[in-house]
Amino acid sequence: MNTLESLFPSNPNYAGRWHAIYLEPIVGSGEKISIGVLAIGADSQYKVIQAIRAELLDCLYGSQAENMQSMIDWVLTSAREELKQHGTICKWSPPFSGVKLSKEYQAADENIEGILKQAIRFTSSLSTLALDAEREDDEYQPRKYSEHWTKSISDELKIIAPHFGSNFNRKIKVGDANILTTYGFLTDQYVTNFGLLIPTRLSASLNTIKAKLFDLETLKRSNLLIKPEKYEIIIGTPSFNDPTLSDKSIKRLKETLGMISELSEDENIGLFQAESASQAANHIFEVAA
């Protein structure tokens, strides 16, 4: 390689193609939003992912966000089934009207996740721009999602260990005041609280998690005769390889997680990072069983 060539990066060695999936929320209006992207590699590997994150659906559609999410799930599942059966999307018939497939775009990157990131960058401003926007004032969404996160873990653990169902959201009196403190999961030997890092609400998410850490510290330092031996906080995060996250969002996510790790280490409280409720539930089962 000569000196001039060394100034430029080498060409990506993973080739593929991608499509965006658009939805008209009001059929016939002409208004379209990108709800998903799919990539097909030259090696026949394929992936279909949602292009707009669930927390942004809440911002846009409020009480109708759950219905919108169900429609998106239906469309993306249909696209996955088409690719699984035929290896191509060219003849795909969406499950209902108002869904459009973009033309095919050729691309190259390090892997299929890189191609998906390209697709999102070029088609979904609701994913990239909204994720990079700073929001510091809304505490409601992190609390709401944290409660849903706890319920999802509880539902998963009940499948593999139904007898642990009563150990969730345990309320106990920790101090002298006649106030009960709620803990995410509590047994005689083990206690954990659950936190969730939401990319669009990292500052508010951190405040919520700090409060949960404080509750664990309070229990640990209390004068209760019977206290758990192991203290932990389980933090739900997206994958750092999630194509819907920009590099800036991933950097902020890692920095916030690092801050939480330092806070928990100071009080000798364990931290477990989970990317799904099932992963968190399996971890609890291994520790508490």
Assign an overall shape.
elongated
User: How many separate domains make up the residues?
Assistant: 2
Strands, count: 10
Would you list the SSEs in sequence order as H and E?
A: EEEHHEEHHHEEEHEHEH
Beta-sheet strand percentage?
15-25%
C-alpha termini separation = 58 Å
Helical content class: 40-55%
Note poorly predicted spans: 129-137
What structural category do the secondary elements indicate? alpha+beta
Protein name: DUF3037 domain-containing protein
Organism: Rheinheimera marina
Please describe the topology of this protein.
Elements (H helix, E strand, L loop, with lengths): L13 E10 L9 E9 L4 E5 L3 H8 L3 H22 L12 E3 L3 E5 L2 H12 L1 H8 L7 H21 L7 E6 L6 E7 L3 E7 L5 H20 L8 E7 L10 H20 L3 E5 L2 H12 L1
Parallel strand pairs: 8-9, 9-10
Antiparallel strand pairs: 1-2, 1-4, 1-5, 2-3, 6-7, 7-8
Describe the structure.
The protein has 289 residues and is α+β, with helices and mostly antiparallel strands. It has 2 domains: 128 residues, no CATH class; 149 residues, Rossmann fold (3-Layer(aba) Sandwich), CATH 3.40.50. It contains 8 helices and 10 strands. Strands 1, 2, 3, 4 and 5 form a 5-stranded antiparallel beta sheet that branches. Helix 1 crosses helix 2 and helix 6 runs parallel beside helix 7. The longest helix is centred in the N-terminal third of the chain and has 22 residues. About 3% of the residues have low confidence. This is DUF3037 domain-containing protein. It comes from Rheinheimera marina.
